[in-house]
Amino acid sequence: MSNQLFTKTGILSRFILRRDRLRIWIWLFGLVAITLLVAQTFVDLYGSEEERQAIAETMLNPAMTAMVGPAYGIDNYTIGAMFAHEMFLFTAIAFGLMSILLVARHTRADEEDGQIEMIRSLPTGRLSNLASTVLVMNGVNVLIALLIGFGLYGMGIESMDLEGSLLYGAALGATGIFFTAVTAVFAQLTENVRGTIGFAFTVLGVSYLVRAVGDVGNEMLSWLSPLGWVLNTEVFVSNYWWPLVLTIITALLLVLLAFYLNAIRDLGSGFLPAKSGRRHASKFLQSPLGLMVRLQRTSLIAWGIGMFILGASYGSVFGELETFFGDNEMLAELIAPIEGFSLTDQFIPMIMSIMAMLSTIPALMAMNKLIGEEKKNRTEHMLGRAVSRTRLIASSLVVSIVTSFVMLSLAAIGLWSAGNAVMEEGLEFGTLYGAAMVHLPAMWMIIGLAALFIGAVPKFIGLTWLYLIYSFIVVYLGGLLQLPDWLGNLSPFGQIPNIPVEDMDYMKVSILVVIAMFAAVIGFVGYNRRDIEG
Amino acid sequence: MTILEINNLTKKFGSFTALDNVNLKVEKGEICGFIGPNGAGKSTTIRILLGILKATEGRAKIFGKDAWADAVEIHKRIAYVPGDVNLWPNLTGGEVIDLFIKLRGTNNKSRREELIKRFDLDPTKKCRTYSKGNRQKVALIAALSSDADLYILDEPTSGLDPLMERVFQECILEAKNAGKSVLLSSHILSEVEKLCDKVAIIREGKIIETGSLIDLRHLTRAHLHVQTKLPMTSLHEVVGVHDVEVDGQSYSIHVDSEELDEVMKYVSQYGIIGLESAPPTLEDLFMRHYEGVSVGVGGAV
User: Fold this and answer.
1) A396 and A336 belong to one structural domain
2) Which chain B residue lies closest to A288 (C-alpha atoms)?
3) Residues A335, A471 within the same domain
4) Res. B220: pLDDT tops 80
C-alpha cells in the first residue's frame, strides 16, 4: 500500500524535465555564468592586496553588513573572501527564487489548473507528483551547485581552493533545497498558487530581513534565518560545512511534513480555509479602475509593507553608519567626503535608486496585468460591455503610476522614520523625500514603455522586465564591477541626478517624462487599433 | 428592422483565412441560430461583432452602427455571453455580476435576484471554486439581467445541466417575446431547433446555408418508412431516393425534398400498407453539410 504512494515518480520526473527543459537551462546557465563572470571580474579589478584591503575597510560598515552579510576574513581579504562576501547572499536568494517559482508551478499551480487531476486519474501514486517535483528540483540544485563549485575551482584563482569552491556551490544548493521544501509545504497549505508563492516569498524576505537586523545588531537573531545559516559557512576562509547539515536536515523535515500533508488532504483543497465572500460588489469595484485595484489589492498591500520595511531597515543602520565612520579616521579619508555633505548624504542616492527600482516591480506588474487579463480571455468581459479600450488601458496606467508613487513614498518614509530615530542629528525629511521622488521619471519611463508594448507589440512585454533587470545590474553592480558609464546611461535610472550630492538636472528628468508620455501615447493608439487576443 | 448585419466579412490571421466573405442578417425580434463545427469561425465572427477583433475586409453593423468604430455605443445595448467563461478567481460570483451589470450601464436589482434564484447560483462563492457550468451561469445572469436589445450568446449552455438548460430556454423565449433579438451560437442542435427562427451554418470560414428551418428542410431529405403489398425491386433506381434499407416488404429510404412527389407516385403503384415520415432534423442537415465535403481544405490526408 504505502509503496504505491510513489508509483510512477520516475516517469513524472522525466515529464517535469521535459516540460521545463528551457526554464531549467535558463536558470542553470544564468546562475553559473553570472557567478563565474563576476569571479573573473574580481580577479581583474582587485588583483593587488592593497586594493582589496581598501575595499575590506569599506565593507565593515553596518549598511554593507545589512545588505550582503557580515564580513569575515577581513585581515587577509583574499579574492575568495571578497567574492563570497559580496556575491553569496544575492546568489543564494536567486537560488531561493528559482526553487520557489519552479516548485509552485509543478505543485499547486498544476493542481489549480486541474492537471494533477488528470495525472492522478492515471495509475500514479498519490504523492508521486510532489515526490517527482522535489526530486527534480533537488537534482537541479545539486547540479548547479556542482557546476558552480567545480567551475570556480577550475578558474584557478589562488584563494579559491577545491574545498572552498565546492562549499560555495553546496551552500547555494542547500539554500535552493531548503526553499524547495518550504514551497512544497505551502503548496499543501494554501488553496491557490498565489498563496503558495506569496507565503514562500514572505519566508525568503523575512529570512533576509531578520538576518540583516541580526548581523548588524544581535548575532543570535541571525540564527533564526535560514539565510543566516548558510552565511555562517564562511566560505573560502573557515569553510564550515556543519551549517549546511542544519539546512539540509530542516529541509528534509519540511519535505516529510509536505508529504504527510499531501497524503491526508483532498485533491484541490488546502489547510488554510477559504471564507465565504461578498454577495454584492462594493461601489468601488464597479469600474475597470476599481477592478484593476481590487485584483491586485493583496499584492499591492504586501508590496507597500515590504517597501516600508525595506526603507526602515536601511534607515536603521544610518545611526551606526555615522558612528562607524566617525571612529575610523583612516576610512573617513579614504571615502574622501564631498564638501558640505555627510557620509549619510552620500549613501542616500544609491539606496534611493535601489528602492526606486524595487518599487518599479509592483508598478510594472500593475501595468502588465492588462496583458495577463487578455491572455486569460478576461478583457473581453470589459470590452464586450460599454468600456472603451482607451478607458481600459488608462485604468491600468493610472493604477501603475499611482503605485509607483505610493511604493517609493512608503520606502522613503520608512527610511526617514527609522533613520531619524537612530541618528543624533536626525534626517531632514524634505531632502530625503526629494532624493526619492527624483527617481519617479525613470520609473515612469519603464511604465510608459510597458504601455507601448501592450499597445503595439504585446508579444514582447517581457522585455520591460529585462530592461528593469538590466537597470538593476548596471546601476547597482556598475560601480562594483567598474562597468563603463555608457552602460549605465542606457538605463533611465542611470540618468537620474544623485540628489542630494549632485544638483537637480531638470533637463534630463523632463526628457525622461516626455519619453514616457510619448511611449504611452503610442501604446494607447496601438491598443485602440489591434485585435484583442486570447 | 435589421438589428445585425454582416456584409462580405473577411478575417485573416496572417496567411490563414478564418472568415471568408461572410454575410449574415438578424432582424428585430428574431432568434438566429449560428451553428458549425469547432474552428469553423463562429467565435471569430462574434468577436468581430463585439469589436474585439478588427475585420480584414467587409463590414459588421449592429443597430446600423459600425461594430469596430462604435463599439462602446453598441455595447450599451447588447449583452454577450462567451462560451469559455474565464472569471477572476479571487472575486465572488455576486461581485462579478454586479461589475458586469455596472459596466454596461443599466441596473436592475430585482431582475438580478430573480435570475440568481432561477439559475440556482450561490453568489457568495469565489469564482475559483465554480465549475464551468457555474461560471456560465454568472455570465448568463449578468447578460440576462441587463435590458439589452440584442443578445450575443456563444455556446452559452455547453456546461449547464438539462434543468438549467430549460431555464435558459425560457429566459430566451421571454426575451424574444419582449421583442429582443438573439444571435445564438450552439452545438446543441435540439436547442437551436427549439428556439431559433432562422439558422446560419458556417463551415471553414464560409456560411454554407442560411434561412428559416422550414426553408432549410427543403434542402434536405425526408426520412420515410414504407410497407407495400408488392416488392419494389427497382426502388433504388428512382431519382431522388437514397440509402435504401430493405427488411422483407418494409423499406426505409431517404428522399430529396424536391423529388418527394414523384417518389410517392412510384411507391403508391405497389400498394401502400403503412407509411411513416420523419421530418429531416437539423442534425441530418448538419451532418450532410459536414460529412463528405471536408476533404480538400483542411485535410490533404
Assistant:
1) yes
2) B103
3) yes
4) no
Considering the domain boundaries, does residue A8 fall inside one?
Answer: no
- What was the pLDDT predicted at A320? 66
Put simply, the answer to whether A386 touches B72 (Cβ < 8 Å) is: yes
- pLDDT per residue as tens digits for the range B119-129: 999 999 989 88
Q: Range with the lowest mean pLDDT among A340-344, A520-524, B88-92?
A: A340-344
The answer on A482 and A422 residing in a single domain is yes
Query: Nearest C-alpha of chain A: how many angstroms from B94?
Result: 5
Mean pLDDT of B136-162: 92
- The mean pLDDT value for A338-361 works out to 84
Identify whether residues A349 and A477 lie together within a single domain. Answer: yes
Clarify whether residues A152 and A217 are in a common domain.
Answer: yes
CB contacts of A382 in chain B (<8 Å) are 103
The residue from A234, A267, A300 where one domain ends is: A267
Q: Which three cell numbers stand for residue A508?
A: 534630463
Q: On the CB side of B91, how many CA atoms lie within 13 Å of its CA?
A: 27
Please judge whether B102 and A112 are an interchain contact, meaning their C-beta atoms are less than 8 angstroms apart.
no
CB pair distance less than 8 Å for A285 and B98: yes
Count of Cβ atoms closer than 10 Å to residue A309 Cβ: 17
Is B203 at the interface with chain A, CB within 8 A? Answer: no
| DSSP label at residue A460 | G
> Closest partner residue to B125 among A192, A277, A291, by Cβ?
A277
Backbone angles phi, psi at B254, to 5 degrees: -110, 135
In one-letter notation, the amino acid at residue A139 is: G
**Of residues B54, B97, B98, nearest to A531 (C-beta):** B54
Of B178, B177, B143, which Cα lies nearest the Cα of B157?
B143
Report the alpha-carbon distance of residue A280 to residue B141 in Å, rounded.
14
Q: What are phi and psi of B224, to 5 degrees?
A: -115, 140
Question: The domain containing residue A418 runs over which residues?
Answer: 284-534
Asked if residue A9 belongs to a domain, the reply is no
Q: Which residues pair with residue B293 across a beta bridge?
A: none
Tell me whether residues B72 and A387 touch, CB distance under 8 A: yes
Domain count, chain A: 2
What is the per-residue pLDDT across B256-296, written as a single tens digit (0 to 9) for each? 877 888 888 888 888 889 888 877 777 777 777 766 554 33
In a domain, A12, yes or no: no
* Predicted local confidence at residue A397, as pLDDT: 97
Burial class (CB in 10 A: 0-12, 13-18, 19+), A205: middle
Query: Model-level pTM?
Result: 0.73
Q: How confident is the model at residue A37 (pLDDT cuts 50, 70, 90)?
A: very high
Instruction: Lowest mean pLDDT of A111-115, A303-307, A505-509, name the range.
Output: A111-115
Q: What is the ipTM of this complex?
A: 0.78
Residues of A with CB under 8 A from a CB of B: 112, 191-192, 194, 274, 276-282, 285-288, 291, 294-295, 298, 376-378, 380-388, 529-532
Enclosing H/E stretch for A143: helix A128-154
Residue of B nearest to A391 (CA): B72
**Closest residue in chain B to residue A290, using alpha carbons only:** B99
A295–B90 CB contact, under 8 Å:
yes
Q: How far is CA A83 from CA A112, A278, A398, in A?
A: 42, 53, 42
Q: Cis omega (within 30 of 0) on the bond before A500?
A: yes
Per residue in B56-101, pLDDT (tens digit) is: 999 999 999 999 999 999 999 999 999 889 998 888 999 999 989 8
Residues 6+ apart with CB under 8 A from B264: none
Residue pair A351/A439 in contact by the 8 Å Cβ criterion: no
Whether residues A261 and A191 share a domain: the answer is yes
- Average pLDDT for chain B: 87
CA distances from A304 to A136, A351, A479 (A): 35, 17, 29
With cut-offs at 50, 70 and 90, classify the pLDDT of residue A338.
low
Q: Which residue has the cell 531597515?
A: A313
Looking at the complex, report in whole angstroms how far the Cα of residue A275 sits from the nearest Cα belonging to chain B: 8
